[in-house]
Write a structure and sequence with these properties.
It is a single chain. By secondary structure, the chain is mainly alpha-helical. The chain has five helices and no strands. Helix 1 runs parallel beside helix 3 and helix 1 packs antiparallel against helix 5. It is globular, with a radius of gyration of 16 Å.
Length: 138
């Protein structure tokens, strides 16, 4: 989806109230890191800012190459966490996504990440179609 959007449209958005395409991609990736760091199995690399202000400074939403590198790094991080997970990790119910959040189970975190990614992929379809671009097949 990210590769289908031309660089000159990374700043575009279908409606003024929405994120830009580039920021949507950063948001999708950042959320996955936040979900999976809760397991504490793999430290988040310094190259993947998880604070929104640091992210905005390090990965401008209009810089397709930087956004792509960030998104790929986030998916690599999730893959590393999944590779390290054990059956015992899947049975956990004590995961804290945020300091004041109620505990979540690992299954809940996995489902949230899956649904969140699918949700924003669906939004990306609209961003592409508004620009007259046929999105890649699922």
């Amino acid at each position: 989806m990210l590769d289908a959007m031309p660089t000159e449209h990374f700043h575009s958005k279908p409606d003024p109230a929405q994120r830009t395409f580039g920021d949507q991609m950063r948001h999708l990736a950042l959320a996955n890191v936040v979900y999976f760091r809760a397991l504490g199995l793999v430290p988040v690399p310094d190259s993947l800012p998880v604070d929104r202000n640091q992210l905005a400074a390090a990965v401008p939403e209009t810089d397709k190459a930087k956004v792509r590198t960030y998104v790929a790094g986030c998916f690599d991080y999730v893959q590393a966490v999944l590779a390290r997970m054990t059956e015992k990790d899947l049975q956990r119910t004590d995961l804290k996504l945020f300091p004041k959040a109620a505990p979540h189970s690992t299954i809940d975190v996995c489902l949230r990440a899956y649904m969140h990614t699918a949700h924003h992929r669906g939004q990306a379809v609209c961003y592409l179609r508004v620009k007259g671009i046929t999105p890649p097949a699922w």
